[in-house]
C-alpha cells in the first residue's frame, strides 16, 4: 500500500498539532493514515487505499458511513436551517422524550457535548446531590479526559494517571478491580459516609472488553443502596449499542441512579448526556444548585442526527442485524483461534468484539508482563474471559501494536491501534 499523502499530511500536522492528532489514540506508529471519506463499512484514505472499518469512529457509527436516508435528511435540514441558536429547539425535547421512553432508569436528561463532559457533570451532580466527595471507579475503566477519573493505582495508593492533575483530585477517587465484590465491599465499608457514587462502565470497553460476572452489577447496586451512594452507569460506549434501545442496563436488568451517554446518542456528531431519576437530575442548574452549562449543548444538528438515528434503529431491526454480524465475526474468529492460537481469547457482545492476546503461561508475575503491568499483585492467566483490567494488561498487549495492527492494515482492515479499545461492526 502506498501512504505517501498520509505521510506528508502527518508531517504537516506534526508542526501545528501536538503529536499530529487531535485525540491521543489516533497517533498510530509510524504514522496514521488520514481519512478522505467513508463508504458503507469502509473508509478510504488520502492515498486512495480502502479499509474495512471496525473502528467506526470509536463507537458512534451504528450504520457505518452511509447514513440511512431519513438520518441524512434530518441532518441536512437542521444544518441548512442554521447551525445553532443559543436558545432551545423542539428537537432537543423530542430526543429527551425518546430516551426517557426507552431507557427505564432515565426520567430526565441533560445533553452536553462529549462523553467526557457527561462524566464530569455526572460526578459533580453526584457530589452535589449527596454532599459527599469521593467516587469509586474500576481499575482499567475509562470515563474520558477528566481530572476526577484519570487515576491509577489501587484505592489506597492512587495517583493521577496524567501530568497536570493535582494529587488532591486523586485522593477523592478510589479505584477497585472490576468484578471483585469483596474489594468493593471493603472500600465502601472503609469510606462509607464519604462516597458520593460508584462510577462503572456496565461492560469495560476501553480495556479489551471485560464483561461483568453474573450478578456483579446487582451486587454493586445493593452495596450502593446500603451506604446511600449513587450508582452511575457510564454507557458512553454501550448506550444504544449493547442491549439495543434499553442499553446495557436493560440487558443486565439494573436501574442505575444516573447514566452517562455519548457516541451513538448523537448520531455521529459531538455529544454527551447525563440522564437519571428526576429528583437527582433536577439538581442541575437552573432547576437546582449544581452548575452545568454549555454553548453548544443540545446542538440542533446533533439532536436531529441522534433522534433520526435512534428512530431508524427502532423501526428497522438494526440491533438484530448488527448483533448477528457481531456473533458471526466472534464465532468465526473463535474457530480460527481454536485452530491457530488456542491461548488467545475472543471477547465481546452485541456489536462489540476484540481478540485478547492472552499469555499462555499459567501464572505471570507482574514483572514479566511485556507492557509492564501497573498492578502490584501477580495476575493469573484467564482461561476463559478476562475478569478485570489487569487481566488484559497482562496479555501480550504489545503484540497487537507491533505485529497485528500493521499486518491487518496492510490487508485493508482498520482496527484500533492497541489491544485495549473495542472493535465495532456496523
Ligand atoms: N466514557 C466512556 C466509557 C468512554 O468510552 C469514553 C470515550 N471512549 C468516554 C467516557 C469519553 O467520551 P469522549 O471521548 O466523547 O469525551
Structural notes for this entry:
The chain has 426 residues and is an alpha/beta fold. It has 2 domains: 4-66 and 317-357 and 396-424, Aspartate Aminotransferase, domain 1, CATH 3.90.1150.10; 69-315, 3-Layer(aba) Sandwich (Aspartate Aminotransferase, domain 2), CATH 3.40.640. It has 13 helices and 18 strands. It has a 7-stranded mixed sheet with strand order 4-12-11-10-9-5-8, with helices on both faces. The chain has a 4-stranded mixed sheet with strand order 1-2-3-17. Helix 3 (90-102) runs parallel beside helix 10 and helix 6 (181-191) runs parallel beside helix 7. It is globular and about 60 Å long. 4'-deoxy-4'-aminopyridoxal-5'-phosphate binds at residues 58, 114-116, 119, 142-144, 201, 205-206, 234, 236-237, 262.
Q: Please give the largest β-sheet.
A: 7 strands, mixed
Please give the CATH class of the largest domain. Answer: Alpha Beta
Number of helices: 13
Gross morphology: globular
CATH architecture field of the largest domain: 3-Layer(aba) Sandwich
Bound compounds, please? 4'-deoxy-4'-aminopyridoxal-5'-phosphate
Mean pLDDT across residues: 93
Number of strands: 18
Q: What is the fourth-level CATH superfamily of the largest domain?
A: Type I PLP-dependent aspartate aminotransferase-like (Major domain)
The CATH topology of the largest domain is Aspartate Aminotransferase, domain 2
Percent range for β-strand residues: 15-25%
What's the alpha carbon Rg, rounded to whole Å? 21 Å
Number of domains: 2
Low-confidence runs (pLDDT<50, min 5 residues)?
360-383
Percent helix among the residues?
A: 25-40%
How are strands sequenced across the largest beta sheet?
Answer: 4-12-11-10-9-5-8
